[in-house]
Amino acid sequence: MATKLPRMAFFKDRVVPYAEAKVGLLTHALNYGTGVFAGIRGYWNADLGKLLVFRLPDHVRRIHESARLLRMNLALTEEATARAVLDLLRAEGLKEDCYIRPLAFYGDEVIGVRLHGLTPIISIVAVPFGLYIDQADGAHCTVSSWRRPSDNVIPARGKITGSYANSAFAKSDAELAGFDEALLLNQDGYVSEGSGENIFLVRRGVVATPSLNQSVLEGITRRSLITLLRDEMGLTVEERPIERCELFVADEVFLTGTAAQVTAVSRIDHRPVGSGKLGPVTDKLRKLFFDVIRGRVDKYRAWCTAVD
Ligand code: PMP
């Protein structure tokens, strides 16, 4: 997937042309993976003529929490970080769906792996963005031979750049073997998540997703969908350890994330999930979610921040 380069970037403390936002080869985070990031979606609402950013304060809070895990003292408060995202979006001026990438990384040009005595740099860019997984109606997934790192290895609840080498191992092996996405088990052999998505299953009308102590990212889409499933669709959602073979007997399985949104899984390792077609819960949830993210549902309008 080629990404068109942005025009502008928020870099350190202000918005500059993207070409001026540069780092050196010795940058700590480039060498040691000592950065934290967010992936946020902006949705163009043609009726309002505005870009709506989905759950901006929640993404900003998570990047600050991830920064705390890496002992980073960010120069911007949460409020200032959110303002910086909006400043960047105004400068970039996109009038289409987009992906926003805030990053806080140790920018020191030094040799020596550690987390202390270093200074973080904040950057933010935005690029046009459509579907992340092409097969949104039915992805073919494989259970990866790679395992998700546990909390005592690299905490999965933080969105730490270095841990994405793990996702990259799993995703490439899956794609090169002809699958759309990899599903990772945790160190105990329970289901954790996709390479860049949380996972849900539906069985006999009950929804289940791995609990937050199963080496998963605390997904903001996950949290949003649990609310919609419970409060709008009246379903029970269990957060608990999930065994791999529960996926094989589930009626529906779907992946959730900022990039993947709600992506149905139709096959896992060549076994059809349920009927092998888009299931009714996934279908209904996805329609509702798409209305919510475009700011069309009054009750959840507060989840969308307009770029004015
Ligand atoms: N798990 C992983 C490993 C991810 O990279 C992502 C994407 N950020 C998610 C889950 C979903 O999180 P969110 O809904 O907050 O985007």
Describe this structure in words.
- This protein has helices at residues 28-32, 56-69, 78-92, 164-176, 220-232, 244-249, 280-293, and strands spanning 8-11, 14-17, 35-37, 40-45, 50-54, 98-106, 120-128, 139-147, 181-185, 191-194, 198-203, 206-209, 237-239, 252-257, 261-268, 271-272, 304-306.
- It is an alpha+beta fold.
- It contains seven helices and 17 strands.
- α2 packs across α3.
- The structure holds 4'-deoxy-4'-aminopyridoxal-5'-phosphate.
- 4'-deoxy-4'-aminopyridoxal-5'-phosphate is lined by residues 39, 167, 193, 196-198, 217, 219-222, 256-258.
Summarize the structure.
The protein is an alpha+beta fold and 308 residues long. The protein has helices at 28-32, 56-69, 78-92, 164-176, 220-232, 244-249, 280-293; strands at 8-11, 14-17, 35-37, 40-45, 50-54, 98-106, 120-128, 139-147, 181-185, 191-194, 198-203, 206-209, 237-239, 252-257, 261-268, 271-272, 304-306.
